[in-house]
Fold these 2 entries.
Entry 1:
Amino acid sequence: MPTSDIKTDEVRLVEYWSRIAPDFDAIYTGNKNPVSRALDRWLRKDIYERYAWVMRKAEEIKPASVCDVGCGSGRFVASLAKRGARVTGVDFAPDMLKLARQLTTSEGVSDRCEFVLSDILDWKTSDRFDMVIAIGFWDYVRDPIPRLEVIRNLTKRSFLSAWPRAGTVRMRIRNVRLKMAGCPVYFFHRNQIEEYLRRVGFRVESSEILGQLYCIQATPV
Ligand SMILES: C[S@@+](CC[C@H](N)C(=O)[O-])C[C@H]1O[C@@H](n2cnc3c(N)ncnc32)[C@H](O)[C@@H]1O
């Protein structure tokens, strides 16, 4: 894959996510008309399910520190900080981080939260975290290995990730819809994801299907 193609993906993604940041956050707040809200509850059910999955796992893991890769508007950051963790959110879309900062301030947890405006691939840090999450993130990553290697180095105890499943009917619809909106999107098979995780030095602890997603917990070996 030529580097120029990868860069093109990144530029398009930053533009796309900055443009739709408030609309994306409204999936969580329900701050939209009743028909759109009902459609979200039906067609985007797994967005709420993956959120509940992460919060359940966080109850078991009880992380003191968390890194949220592709943190978007900060919904996971704020909730995990409210449960007592110190949380770092990393995202390359400025408008998403603006919403995330506003949220953590209004929720009274900004003193436990930090935000980094960067592609995770370019983030230089020596920090390590009890728990790393990457949710709603892999959909937009053509080649997961380089970013998984970065994540492996950040992870002390547990890595939670949600991956869009290849081969579903919704995959085809989403593929057309997002590509028309200028957002590249990718889908994965379970064995392919597990192989990626093993290659970078994770052991898969659990792997479950939630709607259109594989939700996978892994630990460093
Ligand atoms: C679908 S949103 C998910 C946000 C949040 N994780 C959630 O589930 O509510 C995807 C986010 O990932 C960010 N993102 C995608 N690729 C990224 C990368 N390589 N580095 C940093 N952020 C990235 C986008 O800017 C966007 O905010």
Entry 2:
Amino acid sequence: MKLIFAIIQPDRLEEVKQALYEVDVNLITVVPVLGHGRQMGVTEIYRGGKETGNLLRKVELQIAVNDSFVDPTIKAIIKGARTGNIGDGKIFVMDLPRCIRIRTGDEGAEAIG
Ligand SMILES: Nc1ncnc2c1ncn2[C@@H]1O[C@H](COP(=O)(O)OP(=O)(O)OP(=O)(O)O)[C@@H](O)[C@H]1O
Ligand SMILES: [Mg+2]
């Protein structure tokens, strides 16, 4: 299992969600975050709101998936979020040792999807 974090522009969220649903990724967590990339938030301000100092409003997706879903998930995020402009975002993939569904006690592959 992997845990995928993706930081995207808030105005791409709907497109990314639709692209994820198309590859049967239906369980996601969406978190409003502040951040900047290598431009330090300076040249990118035109794309969105400036929150505080040089930190810009972004959206973080947190998606836990079985291994076979990792590449489709990455492709879907890129499909929905890429404009070709600076600040399109970044994807981080981490190993995920455990996942437990609280209601049933299911673990692992059963619990994740
Ligand atoms: N190495 C990193 N560590 C933590 N967060 C990061 C990192 N790189 C990017 N981010 C987060 O992702 C957001 C989007 O990054 P961004 O797309 O601007 O990356 P970039 O490396 O500057 O690429 P680009 O040149 O395309 O803008 C940032 O606002 C920040 O929140
Ligand atoms: Mg950047």
